[in-house]
Amino acid sequence: MGHLPFWPESASTNAGNVDALYIFLLLVSGIMTMLIFTVLTVFAVRFRKRRGQRAVQIEGSNQLELTWSIIPFCVMMVFFIWGAVIYFQERTPPQDADEVYTVAKQWMWKFEHKGGQREINELHVPVGRDVKMIMTSQDVIHSFFVPAFRLKQDVLPGRYTTLWFHATKPGTYHLFCSQYCGTQHSGMVGWVVVMEPRDYEAWMSAGGGNQPLAVTGEKLFSELGCVTCHRSDTQGRGPDLAGVFGKSVLLEDGRTVIADENYVRESILEPAAKIVRGFKPVMPTFQGQVSDEQLNALVDYVKSLARPQSGQPGNTNGVATPQP
Amino acid sequence: MATAVVSDSGERETYLNSGYGLKSWLLTVDHKRIALLYLMSITFFFFIGGFFALLIRLELLTPGGGLVQSDTYNKLFTMHGQVMVFFFVIPGVPAVLGNFLIPLMIGAKDLAFPRINLLSWYLYVIGGILMIYTILNGGVDTGWTFYTPLSTEFLKTNVISAALGVFVAGFSSILTGLNFIVTIHRMRAPGMTWNRLPLFVWAHYATSIIQVLGTPVVAITIVLVALERLFHLGVFNPALGGDPLLFQHLFWFYSHPAVYIMILPSMGIVSEIVCCFSRKRIFGYKAMTLAVVGIAVIGFLVWAHHMFVAGISLYAALIFSLLSYFVAVPSAIKVFNWTATMYKGSITYQTPMLYAFGFIGLFTIGGLTGLFLACLGMDVHVHDTYFVIAHFHYIMVGGMVMAYLGGMHFWWPKISGRMYPEGWGKLAALIVFIGFNLTFFPQFILGYMGMPRRYHMYPPEFQILNVLSTAGATILAVGYLLPMIYFTWSMRYGDPAPSNPWNAAGLEWQTHSPPPTFNFDEQPVVTWEAYNYDEMDEIPEIREVPVAN
Amino acid sequence: MQTSQAAVDEHAHENPALLHHFATAEQQKNAAGLGMWLFLAQEVMFFGGLFCAYLVYRYKYFGDFGSASQQLDIRLGTTNTVVLICSSLTVVLAIRAVQLGKRMALVFWLLATILLGLAFLGIKADEYAEKFEKHHVPGPSFNYHELLPGQEKFPAAERQYANPHHAEMFFSLYFAMTGMHALHMIIGVGLFGFLAYKAWRGKYTPKYYTPIENAGLYWHFVDIVWIYLFGLLYLIDRHR
Amino acid sequence: MSEHNSASEPTSEQTPEHISSLGSCLAIWVALLAGTTLTVAAAFIDLGPFNTIVALTIATIKATLVVLFYMHVKYTHEKLTGLVIVSAIFFLFILLALSMADYTTRLWR
């Protein structure tokens, strides 16, 4: 859709999908509404009270009841399936998306790119690339909402939620917090700036001197002493983290979990929650010792260990040893 | 059977004149008097909530927010929501019309537990006083949903007194529901079998199930919120290992079915009105009864469709989306059946029928936009925007308030013994309809444009639609004030009502207007089906009260 | 009006407990019974919210719930279970007594119930006091690291690194659930006190004892809640 | 006033109230105490995941005994009581099951 009045801009692949669904829903429900209104009007006029004419009593008809139960239900199943397909697309980020870490707090949005660039209430993204938001909140529940992308995800304290989009049109779009978050809720707004790739590269390098997130993470990893246990040689008291991210991990109690952002986060804050098989719960908790930003850096570092070629910031552990 | 003519002599003893003085009202156990107590208190809260709504709309005239501070604005929408939801829409129809009419409709002398009925009014009043205290003490700004951890850890306002108010009002609602279920099971007149019950009674039966089984869950949840605030328990606090989504699960487990507490009784009213003014049996009585009970039961299975973007699991979202469509089917059945009822009828257009028309139309729109919200991909975009606001106001204001006003007009002769001025009634119905649509239709567009709810300030491109909405709200306010004025006027100056001014079917029309304290002079015995309009005469011509009186 | 007033008077002669709006005593009794059961259904959902919270966190923090549960005194818990079961028996015997028209027996069994109820509450208060002493009450003073005798059998690692927040969650739910239960007990004891007084005055006969019956239903329900609370709160991972 | 009788549920005219025999009262009491002993004993035996199941099963059996005998549900002619109990349990089940449907299928669990 272009820029019709009363129609929001659409600037992502998802926006087109949602618009199509919306138009379909509008059409079907418009037809239904017209149908009911027309019938109501016709009946209201046709069967208005006339002298000497009495109402004809009708008990009802099971056939009719079934008809107007089943047909709408089938139509609704189309709504359901179509909506579910879009939802699954929205919730399944592509593997190689650019990642932006987001920390929401009362009442601002803090973004950090993988390259270490930080922004507040403004998010610069390139057109034509997949971008994945990895979001958490420092205090209450917020919600990341970009109408032009037709996307929204609540941002929760104590946990990551994610969201991804593929911007299609350069421009500046509204960013809203859509979950009521306290006094300045309506001030927790910002802009998503979608840029041509060239402009984006220029913007990314403009700040200069930024330390990539994974490097910050690596530094923290040694400062906090993580590296003394999480080592590649067999002497380590904790599992080697190379190549772990994104894989499934077998736990002490027999369950398996996918080592995603939330798992890494939880393992730092609540090490005893999910012990990898073969290890003892000896790691102390880092709850209260690392900020949300630092956690993001650590998570990104662990993530970088799973990608030997690209994000490898020159660590000793080049080989991904199999899990013990 | 329509010959049970009752002479309305002047000095007949009625429930209204059987006792005088404050005590005879405040200590009454007569369900009709309690209904009137509710009527007054609920009207009071309706106007308080409406006042907040008007302030909200005035504030939103300009994008920059000049009228009040953000802080105040947040309190306004919170208290608008809490007052309207817990003190008007939920108790509205059941506690006033249900209370008044159920014993009359089933041929009983009173509800099964008259003293509990009075107790539930007092609980309502206590809850209301706590709410008023909250308002006067500086208000509360949690949003009516009390979402944690905002409500438990971050806000400095009167969360606990507001929570307590909601808690106490909740028990009022539970006791009302309990009373209705027992009454409908145990107090029916001889011959009044389940298949002869008016749909109004069926609707209240279904509503009561939700009140009894749903409300306790929100009650304990609210208690946990208060305890968490007082003692920092951590059940919903992520900093202490709690899950804020658990609060949302427990809250919506009640608060979604609560939507059906709001709308089911209204559906009952509309069934009565449509039949009466079409002079027809209801089309598909069985289907209608199954539909109300179906809505009540399935309504319990769909709550997490309020949480599609909250961070619940994908699979849970899928289940809840699917189940949400199941509840749409019985709702659709109801709309179709009302429409079909009018087929080959002999329709007249008195005020109640106008409201019923309004209800069917607005409920259709509200219901269909509900399908948008149940649709996962769609909901992600419109969730927490004005689309949601418009949707549920179409159901609650377009649905519940329309039907409530329709019902008030329909049964006003029975309640007060006086006719309301028909001309004014029609005028008010028209104003309400126009004002309502102007207020809330633009909000659908605003929502799809992306305007989030609960926003004190908004980007200027949304202003035109907001101005339209505010204009509508002022019209709506006039529409609501009018009935209030002429109902009051009619209590003194209205024409005396005959016992059955509409020649309507139903036991409540076979006793005097207003009824005696024990409802019937003789125990009625029912030998006919509901809505036996084939045996009823046409609606008598009602002398219009000159408008300029 | 006259007729119905007469009807009321007529009933008043038959049975002073029959309220005006019921046709028969049977109808009144059935109404009261159904009302009570609906009230209990409401109570099920009321506690259901707490059980739901318990279920979620037990699922999430199973291990820590187990170790926190060890901190509860199983002897006191079991004693309380037995006390409550006994009180259920005394209630049943009270109803039997009123059905047989034995006034003093009724009063006796009601008093016995009250006594057992108070015993339960006393033991509960003792348990609570112990929790305060051990700093196991959720809040700023909560401390889960000072473990108690009986904890030595755990490997050091487990003892050290169980997440205190999760243990605190267990105790939060423990206090919320048992507290809500105790509140119901207190109401029940008060109710029985009232009924015992009226029973002593001879208000209840084999023909009319609905209040006793309904209070009994309430008491049994409270007993059932405890049966579940006992299993869920006290008996996790005891074998370790 | 005889025709005054309510048309509600077909109430069996003046059913004599069931009076529990002293023996059955005591028998149930003994069964409940035995259940308590059993459940405490079972808790100290390592049954793996079955510990919870055993504890809940015994609790449910005890609760059923109380409902059927002490609360007289077994002797009542009233089908409605059963309906109320079943619907309370049903809706409790819905609350627990659908909430857990979320918690057990979250990918990060």
Provide structural commentary:
- The complex is a heterotetramer of chains A (324), B (549), C (240) and D (109).
- With 549 residues, chain B is mostly helical.
- Chain B has a single domain (34-513), classed as Cytochrome C Oxidase, Chain A (Up-down Bundle), CATH 1.20.210.
- Helices cover 65% and strands 0% of the residues of chain B.
- The relative contact order of chain B is 0.12.
- Chain C has eight helices and no strands.
- In chain C, helix 2 packs across helix 3.
- The longest helix of chain C has 37 residues, at 164-200.
- The radius of gyration of chain C is 23 Å and the shape is elongated.
- Chain D has two domains: 21-74; 76-109.
- Chain D has 109 residues and is mainly alpha-helical.
- Chain D is flat, with a radius of gyration of 20 Å.
- Chains in contact: A-B, A-C, A-D, B-C, B-D, C-D.
Q: What fold name stands as the CATH topology of chain B?
A: Cytochrome C Oxidase, Chain A
Largest sheet composition of chain D: none
Rg calc of chain D = 20 Å
Mean pLDDT of chain B equals 92
The share of residues in extended strands of chain D comes to: under 5%
Please report the total strand number of chain B as a whole number. Answer: 0
**Helix/strand order of chain D, N-terminal first:** HHH
Instruction: Report how far apart the termini of chain D are.
Output: 67 Å
Short characterization:
The complex is a heterotetramer of chains A (324), B (549), C (240) and D (109). Chain C has 240 residues and is mostly helical.
For this entry, give a set of tags.
heterotetramer; A: 324 residues; alpha+beta; Immunoglobulin-like; Cytochrome Bc1 Complex, Chain D, domain 2; 5-stranded mixed sheet; 12 strands; 20% strand; disordered C terminus; C: 240 residues; mainly alpha; Four Helix Bundle (Hemerythrin (Met), subunit A); 0% strand; elongated; disordered N terminus
Could you outline the blueprint of secondary structure elements for this entry?
The complex is a heterotetramer of chains A (324), B (549), C (240) and D (109).
Chain A: H1 13-46, H2 62-91, E1 98-105, E2 108-113, E3 118-120, E4 122-126, E5 130-137, E6 142-146, E7 151-155, E8 161-166, E9 171-177, E10 190-195, H3 197-206, H4 213-223, H5 226-229, E11 248-250, E12 256-258, H6 261-269, H7 292-304
Parallel strand pairs in A: 1-5, 4-10
Antiparallel strand pairs in A: 1-2, 2-3, 5-8, 6-7, 6-9, 9-10, 11-12
Helix pairs in contact in A: 1-2, 4-7, 6-7
Chain B: H1 22-26, H2 31-59, H3 70-106, H4 114-136, H5 150-154, H6 159-186, H7 199-231, H8 244-278, H9 285-298, H10 314-342, H11 351-374, H12 376-382, H13 386-416, H14 422-449, H15 463-493
Chain C: H1 2-14, H2 25-60, H3 62-69, H4 74-99, H5 103-133, H6 156-161, H7 164-200, H8 210-234
Helix pairs in contact in C: 2-3, 2-7, 2-8, 3-7, 4-5, 4-8, 5-7, 7-8
